[in-house]
Design goal:
- This protein has about 150 residues and is mostly beta strands.
- It contains two helices and nine strands.
- The protein is about 10% helix and about 35% strand.
- It has a four-stranded antiparallel beta sheet, with no helix packed on it. The chain has a three-stranded antiparallel beta sheet with strand order 5-9-8. The chain has a two-stranded antiparallel sheet with strand order 3-4.
């Protein structure tokens, strides 16, 4: 029984779950970094004769992840599957940007929530996707794209 090097161990892959439908997708490659942002909202009070505005705490904004990049490469995916459909991941992300079909009230028209698990011991977050961007590269060789969700 030999010792396994750190380079030989692969970390668990991140999983995205559509909380409304229960559909989940495992990412092809884990994102390389994750940033988290929390903003604070202040009332700006003007005091006569004071050279600056006084800040008064109002509330704490929602926690946001300004950018989370997913990398998809059909050539690499083909080594793991017979005929990978990497555009299925794109459709999954796009579905998280629109309300569920047949919404008849305000709550039903809310954006779907997504559960990000990366891995469970490290990071779990339930959130809403407010922005998604796709960048396509290497059309002649294979389809490769990155998706940037916020």
């Amino acid at each position: 029984m030999g010792l396994e090097s750190v380079a030989d161990r692969r970390p668990p892959k991140a999983i995205l779950v559509n909380v409304s439908t229960g559909e989940d997708k495992e990412v092809l490659f884990n994102p390389t970094q994750l940033g988290e942002k929390i903003s604070v909202n202040y009332n700006r009070l003007a005091v006569p004769g004071l050279s600056h505005q006084v800040l008064q705490y109002q509330s704490t904004g929602n926690t946001t992840i300004p950018s989370l990049e997913f990398y998809l490469d059909k050539y690499v995916a083909a080594r793991n599957e017979e005929d990978p459909d990497i555009l299925d991941f794109k459709r999954f992300l796009q579905a998280l940007t629109v309300p569920p079909a047949g919404a008849e009230d305000i709550l039903g028209g809310a954006p779907p929530r997504v559960l990000v698990i990366w891995p469970a011991e490290l990071f779990t977050l339930e959130c809403v996707i407010t922005d998604v961007e796709f960048e396509y590269r290497q059309f002649s060789v294979c389809l490769l794209y990155t998706s940037d969700a916020a």
